[in-house]
User: Which sequence fits this backbone?
């Protein structure tokens, strides 16, 4: 209900602001055009339904803003959220004088201040500082509106498509309004210059002299009331905090053993922010996006039942009973939690060798991996679920590759390309690539177990590995530039991955890799394939199940290696 009220009231205010800005922009044409549109705007917003809508929306929106400020358990805000609060509370402070000298003056004091000529004259030729305040108000109000709309719309699947158009409109409208405002001011100035008595007549019609101090007092009253309300909410928060101290604390424990004690009433997302644990929360903790979902382990008394709204979101993602939304869960006792969606930062590949930036040819081992039947998996799923599953998959595969000593070149759709041997000999690189394949399979098994309730069928991969000469270098354009490899070796490795599908096996590895690693595969099927440009056929080996690789025959891992991403050790000796 709160969310719907906030959205409905916000949309009414949005319509009002947009019409106001369009009206301002007509100043580019003339003050007469501004007045013409203002005529029917007044008819709309001063009608009984219009008055109820605009005052109702304003009161509801502000009341909900105070409520949200009170309800927040921590004032540690993300930058955009903080900006939205700041701009939102600045609007009445900046608009107080304008509102009291126009709408309030017209409605309650018998004045006639709601004409563009009157407003422009008052702002620029009586109290110019108010003109500057009004321009600031224009941009403050519009920025607040745009941030709110973005928070609301960015969860829609079509948002990315229409984003460029929305951005263009968001920039164009205030600029046109600003230019219209300036053009109107210039025209008003010319009219005042032509008629020396005009200013006096306008001021006389705007308000009776006796009412002018009243208008200023009302503006001051609005500002004092707003500041008083903000201080009141902050004091209420302090009071609640003192009460909470007596209600005890809940210990939130994260994977790896990090923990924090939080006062009862705070959410797990609050705890993550206080502890500095990266925690995805795309909707900003409003319980809409499900990206803050966590797996919880606690006694039933420590876990309050999910609200109807939280249940609806959890049902939508088909969550198990031990999955909750971190932004909605306010534990009543100790809870072990593990965020299910990797934080945006976690996905970044921090292992990026600085060598070969200028390009060079060297022996390298290339690994390609691809998710089987991903298209079918993505069917009938919410985009967020697909992104969630893919990101978990990429995280596990990326960590497995890095743990084995490889470099994640890129993620291509649902596939992965990795390089081994950027700074070590090819024999060690081949061993690393095979170790990575095995670790990837292990990680995938773990992931399938973790996502058993989210998947219709377990995720399966096909991997191709080949070794040979390739050109290594920093390639791409702009921010998409990165270290990568090109050449026949890369193409053949990719082809082996495709062949793993045809052979119905998990791994296809070339003879070169096995020979270089000093490995013989008794339980693999040998094939010979023709490669264009090669006289002799290329020998490859199809391994039905990667876990069948004879681990004891693999040489020990090479140095240097990146730091292990997790504390697992398998029989390959790979951390
Ligand atoms: S942050 Fe969006 S649902 Fe929790």
Assistant:
């Amino acid at each position: 209900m709160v969310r719907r009220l906030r959205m409905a009231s916000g949309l009414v205010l949005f319509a009002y602001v947009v019409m106001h800005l369009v009206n301002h922009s007509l100043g580019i044409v003339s003050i007469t055009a501004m007045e013409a549109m203002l005529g029917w705007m007044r008819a709309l917003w001063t009608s009984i339904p219009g008055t109820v809508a605009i005052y109702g929306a304003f009161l509801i929106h502000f009341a909900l803003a105070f409520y949200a400020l009170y309800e927040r358990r921590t004032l540690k805000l993300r930058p955009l959220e903080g900006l939205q609060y700041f701009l939102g509370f600045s609007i009445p402070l900046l608009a107080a004088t304008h509102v009291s000298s126009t709408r309030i003056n017209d409605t309650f004091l018998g004045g006639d201040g709601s004409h563009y000529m009157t407003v422009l004259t008052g702002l620029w030729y009586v109290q110019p500082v108010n003109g500057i305040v009004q321009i600031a108000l224009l941009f403050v109000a519009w920025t607040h509106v745009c941030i709110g709309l973005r928070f609301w719309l960015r969860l829609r699947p079509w948002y990315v498509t229409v984003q460029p158009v929305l951005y263009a409109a968001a920039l164009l409208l205030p600029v046109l309004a600003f230019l219209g405002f300036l053009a109107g001011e210039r025209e008003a100035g010319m009219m005042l210059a032509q008629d020396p008595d005009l200013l006096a007549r306008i001021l006389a019609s705007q308000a009776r002299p006796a009412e002018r101090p009243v208008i200023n007092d009302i503006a001051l009253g609005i500002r004092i009331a707003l500041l008083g309300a903000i201080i009141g909410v902050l004091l209420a928060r302090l009071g609640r905090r003192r009460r909470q101290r007596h209600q005890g604390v809940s210990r939130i424990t994260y994977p790896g053993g990090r923990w924090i004690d939080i006062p009862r009433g705070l959410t797990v997302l609050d705890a993550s922010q206080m502890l500095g644990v990266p925690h995805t929360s795309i909707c900003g903790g409003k319980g809409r996006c499900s990206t803050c979902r966590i797996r919880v382990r606690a006694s039933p008394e420590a876990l309050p039942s999910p609200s109807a709204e939280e249940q609806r979101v959890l049902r939508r993602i088909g969550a198990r009973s031990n999955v909750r939304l971190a932004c909605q869960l306010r534990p009543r006792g100790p809870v072990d939690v593990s965020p299910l969606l990797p934080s945006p930062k976690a996905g970044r590949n921090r292992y990026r060798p600085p060598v070969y930036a200028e390009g060079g040819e060297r022996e390298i081992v290339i690994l390609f991996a691809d998710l089987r039947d991903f298209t079918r998996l993505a069917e009938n799923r919410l985009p967020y679920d697909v992104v969630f599953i893919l990101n978990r998959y990429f995280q596990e595969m990326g960590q497995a590759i890095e743990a084995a000593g490889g470099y994640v070149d890129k993620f291509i759709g649902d596939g992965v390309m990795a390089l081994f041997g950027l700074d070590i000999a090819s024999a060690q690189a081949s061993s690393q690539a095979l170790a990575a394949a095995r670790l990837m399979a292990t990680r995938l098994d773990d992931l399938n177990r973790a996502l058993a309730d989210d998947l219709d069928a377990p995720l399966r991969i096909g991997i191709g590995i080949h070794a040979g000469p390739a050109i290594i270098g920093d390639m791409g354009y702009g921010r998409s530039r990165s270290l990568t490899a090109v050449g026949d070796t890369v193409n053949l490795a990719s082809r082996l991955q495709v062949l793993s599908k045809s052979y119905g096996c998990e791994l296809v590895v070339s003879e070169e890799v096995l020979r270089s690693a000093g490995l013989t595969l008794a339980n693999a099927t040998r094939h010979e394939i023709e490669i264009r440009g090669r006289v002799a056929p290329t020998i490859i080996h199809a391994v039905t199940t990667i876990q069948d690789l004879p681990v004891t025959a693999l040489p020990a891992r090479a140095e240097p290696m990146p730091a292990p991403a997790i504390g697992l050790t398998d029989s390959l000796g790979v951390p």
Q: What stands out?
A: Confidence is low (pLDDT under 50) at residues 345-355, 552-575. The first helix runs from residue 2 to 25. The radius of gyration is 32 Å. The pocket of FE2/S2 (inorganic) cluster is lined by residues 281-283, 285-292, 325, 327 (CB under 6 Å).
